[in-house]
Amino acid sequence: MAVRAPRFPVPVAAAIGAGAWGPVQELRACDELRLVTTPRHATVLLVAGDVPAEHRQALDRVHDQLPHPRAVVSWTAGQDSSSVLGAAVTGDVDAVVTAVVEAHRRVTTDPSSSTPDRRPDVEPNEWRGVGPFGQGGEGMMGGTPYGRAMAMTGDDRDGLALDQLHLTLGPFLDPLPPGMVMDVTLQGEVLQEVDLRLPPIGGAPFPDDLGADDTSAPARRGLRWLAHALHVQGLDADAARAARLAGRCRPGVDLVPPFRALRRRLRWTGLRWSLRGVGSIDGAGDAAGRWDARLDQIDAGLAGDPVGGALPSAVSWGALPDVLEGLTLTDAVTTLVSFDLAAQPATHGSPR
Amino acid sequence: MKDVPHLDPVTAIAVVGAVLGVGAYATAVIRATAFASLAGHRVRPAPLLRRPAAEAWSLVTQQPVSTERPDRATWVLAPAAYVGLAAAAVSVVPLAPGLVVADVATGIVVFGAAEALAIVAIFLHGWSPNSPLALISAFRFVAVALSYELLSMFVLIAAALPAESLSLGAIVESQAGLWNVVRQPLGLPLFLIVALGVTSSGPLAVVDSADLSGGGGIEDSGAQRLAWAVARAAMLVAFSAAAAAVFLGGWQGPLLPGGAWMLAKTATVLVGLVVAGERVARISPERIVRLSWSVLLPLAFVDLVVAGLGSL
Asked: What is the rounded CA–CA span in Å between residue B125 and residue B115?
């Protein structure tokens, strides 16, 4: 490696665009950087892949949430660098790690090079001054002060009146597929209403070698999914192991023994128990079943014997709200992750 | 009223500060080492020893970003309250023969109160930034915490029975012949579960978890984030020290001086808790509540019955 190892793993927030979700997961294997769950914890923003126009404003907001001193590295496929933020890098994971570590070092030694805000620091919506307390709604509840809905009571599933919290999740929320935007109504932690506004960003994976003729491609995609999924379930050390296997996945490299060793390690984490019974769907089992199917598929792929048949991600996009409504936010995330929507966007149906 | 033996205030503050400060740093080193070894990275002791200092310095020099209309006072006070509760908890734990910051007769009540009030600190931390995912982490922690914090009181009372005292000093002395971990085998594991819960780690990570994209700490940056990390580590140290004193015989042991035994036992518990935090998958809050009420709480009753029968 060209650069000196940093004194601690560089905290990196990833905003992921077209085709970059999988490659970014491989960064979990690196000792030199750490993918963090929120831009507030990062010094470097990694914009991976091309971010579509409808998400540019959200990307700017994510950028502005990084504390100073901050730097931006854009990981692009190389063809168009006109709309790129910060230093552009093309190439493989090693090139990105080098660029990130370098950007971190540069901005921490020279904080004046920290990138300025990309959006004005103003209220996103004006104060409207409606109703007795100015926010609209009834009494001190409800209404949309500054354009954001305030809690208002509504009937819950048990027939009681409980505060409703209206949220928009995405498009760059760590546990969700990149680009996916959901409007949800929560009571407590239970999702009462789910509206899917935008589907995950698709696009051909880059920079990569996962061509149709690459026999290791299905297993590698599976291992990238596994790295992210383990991270979401709180097993970051095992996620690093899965990511390392994904990075080593090439035709002719025998990864079956280390993969089986990883599966044995996972047996002692209580993971299967925590997934059992979560997100059960007619015909598609529960999260634990989908994980098992997925892990078997990776195993078969690594053994050079890819099994056919539908991926466990085969849920129609339009059916997702029905699957998620009534779940707690945690279980909804576990369910979404078990479907592997990021690597294989399910495009049948359309957002309702 | 009998005088409560205690240290003078300056020494007391120095002792508590040293225990929590050194303990929190050690926790960060242990965590980094455990992660490196579990993740299959190369474990190089020297950089790992320096890493928390470098990381802390980088946070101190970082901009603390604010949010839209946060509750600023409570945002700053939450980590202070949390670390203060860790200090209160550690102050009643005997660190060596004759060395306890406040040897109050009701030591386990003080410890239990500190642990219960931690709910308030953790809730305020999530409430303060005026940010939805942080708020959700806050209220779900409150919903979950009651179910397992009850365990702690039962296992501590069980440990107090053979000592016939609520003082941690007396509990340590009552283990001269037999440690509580043998006498009441259910006590230590249940107490460690509470420790994981109060510090929101591993299976009981409901606050700062990945499903909420960082949860309670989602808006923290710079010194704010450092303060919360230190407070969490300090609470883990307080629990480790209490576990060593209440269940592992505290400073008792052959050959070595008492302080060394206490240090070794506390460090062992701390390593166990940190590794469990990295090695066990997160459980959903709903499942934690169900598990606590239907399995763990009955086990705590069994522990109390065993302790009661043993003390007849």
From this structure: 16
| Nearest beta carbon to residue A269 from set B62, B217, B281 | B281
- Interface probe for A, chosen from B142, B213, B275, B286 (most Cβ of A below 10 Å), is B213
Q: Is the pLDDT of residue A46 over 80?
A: yes
Distance CA A90, CA A179 (A): 22
With 0-12 / 13-18 / 19 or more C-beta atoms within 10 angstroms meaning exposed / middle / buried, residue B207 is buried
Structure tokens at A308: 């056919």
Which residues between 48 and 67 in chain A have a beta carbon less than 8 angstroms from any beta carbon of chain B?
A: 65, 67
Q: Give dist(CA B234, CA B21) in Å, integer.
A: 7
- pTM score, whole prediction: 0.93
Q: Are the beta carbons of A41 and B139 separated by less than 8 Å? A: no
| Helix or strand holding residue A237 (H, E) | helix A236-248
Mean per-residue pLDDT of chain A = 84
Task: Return the ∠ at Cα A177 (arms to A98 and A319), rounded to 5°.
Answer: 165
State percent of chain B over pLDDT 70.
98
Edge-first strand listing for the sheet containing A10-16: A33-35, A10-16, A44-48, A71-75, A87-89
For residue B280, give the chain A residue with the closest CA: A269
